[in-house]
Amino acid sequence: MKFPIDKFETRQTPFYYYDADLLDETLQTIKSQLQPGDHMHFAVKACTNPGVLAHVIRAGFGADCVSGGEIQVCLDAGFPADKIVFAGVGKSDWEILLALRADIFCFNVESIPELEVINQLAQREGRTARVAFRINPNVGAHTHDNITTGRAENKFGIAMEDMVEVIRLSRQLPNVECIGLHFHIGSQLLDMDDFATLSLRINELQEELDCYGIVLPHINVGGGLGIDYIEPDLHPMADFASYFATFRRYLRLRPGQQLHFELGRAIVAQCGSLITRVLYVKQGAVKKFVIVDAGMTELIRPALYDAHHCIQNLTNDEGDEIYDVVGPICESSDVFAKDLPLPHCSRGDLMAIRSAGAYGETMASQYNCRPLSTGVLSTDL
Ligand SMILES: *Cc1c(COP(=O)(O)O)cnc(C)c1O
Q1: pLDDT classification of 318: cutoffs 50, 70, 90
Q2: 221 ligand 1 Cβ < 6 A
Q3: What does the alpha-carbon distance between residue 336 and residue 303 come to, in Å, rounded to a whole number?
Q4: How far apart are CA 43 and CA 272, in angstroms?
């Protein structure tokens, strides 16, 4: 990726930088692989930068939200309400009311008590809520433990054994209308077998529904497609071709059934970088540290899930040293990389922490009373 370093020089670091060309290319690549009756809802928890959302909206995608705050951000950004879906195991009353009043497309319901509350609140509002049931398909995805969501022991979704019962229950409740099934098995999945397994499980569940004469118009397979954090320049885009081909090959939809996807990371991760400046280079007792002005407050993924991010010195590409790249936060886990070979680093060098467009800016915190970092699109520099 080419970085406009001269434009970076005058900006306060750290900040998030989003390459608008790569974002658009990614959106268009996905769009070209959607078929009539397919819907893409961008999982906005990956990135709610307003500039990025504007491009997603322009591409015609909807939004997958997991909180009332996200729904409000999406409505304000200009997502049509009828392209917003709302998941989450713990929806508060005010969040449900916000979604009902906005008349979003669908609640992805994760428990019977939640269904009953939605029905009650919808009744009070004189509305009918469209709901889909998030079924926990008990599929073990090959990814970090903290980001699997579709195993029986995870908190997400409704057990498969309870699927028919909840659909029947929903049919007795006057203010909810069950329109589909929803799944989401995890994140940063690179093994297409996981999506194949999910598809086969959905087929089984649909066969079970056949026995009861139940056909639902919408199947939502969630998101989770992973990206290449090791070599972002070699693979600036996720393997969308294999991802979509897997569902086309294995998932058997009923006539007229519409297919929904909720990709987050794969849409925005590679276009974003965290730009930071070297504050100090320090020789410790056994290691050499590059101390940068970004920390886990800007990008928590390495501290939270041992995530790897490629780091580039944008100012200097000569020399060869081994460094630990660390932030200024008072936590030992505030480390971006250990024993990383890098060109010689000096105070003032600009660094890019790559593949940071997803779960970067949105997970920022103000720990240590740090200001929230800002994000900028390449086209706004
Ligand atoms: C987070 C989330 C997604 C997106 O996951 P990615 O790994 O970023 O694609 C999709 N659906 C639901 C319900 C989610 O919670």
Answers
A1: very high
A2: no
A3: 8
A4: 16
pTM: 0.96
> Mutate which of 187, 194, 261 to test ligand 1's pocket (most atoms within 8 Å of Cβ)?
187
Q: Which fold has domain 5-13+271-380?
A: Lyase, Ornithine Decarboxylase; Chain A, domain 1 (2.40.37)
The CATH code of the domain at 20-268 is 3.20.20.10
Q: How many Å lie between the centroid of ligand 1 and the Cα of residue 220?
A: 11
Ordered by start, the domain boundaries in the chain are 5-13+271-380, 20-268
Does residue 14's CB lie within 6 angstroms of at least one atom of ligand 1? no
pLDDT score of 272: 98
| pLDDT, tens only, 254-287 | 999 999 999 999 999 999 999 999 999 999 999 9
The torsion angles phi and psi of 159, rounded to 5 degrees, stand at -60, 145
Binding site membership of 45 for ligand 1 (Cβ less than 6 Å): yes
Per-residue model confidence (pLDDT) at position 31:
98
Q: Is the dihedral of CA 335, 336, 342, 346 positive or negative?
A: negative
Q: Is the pLDDT of residue 148 over 90?
A: no
Q: Which of 179, 221, 169, 165 is nearest to 41 (CA)?
A: 221
Check pocket membership of 226 for ligand 1, CB cut-off 6 A: no
Q: Judge if the beta carbon of residue 87 lies within 6 A of ligand 1.
A: yes
Cα 217 to Cα 293: distance, rounded to the nearest angstrom: 50
Phi, psi (degrees; rounded to nearest 5) at 41? -110, 115
pLDDT value of residue 130? 98
On the question of a common fold for 5-13+271-380 and 20-268, the answer reads no
- Does residue 360 line the site of ligand 1, with CB under 6 A? no
Whether ligand 1 lies within 6 angstroms of the CB of 186 is answered as: no
Q: Residue 354 and residue 272: Cα distance in Å, rounded?
A: 7
State the pLDDT at residue 365: 97
Q: How far is the CA of 65 from the centre of ligand 1 (A)?
A: 9
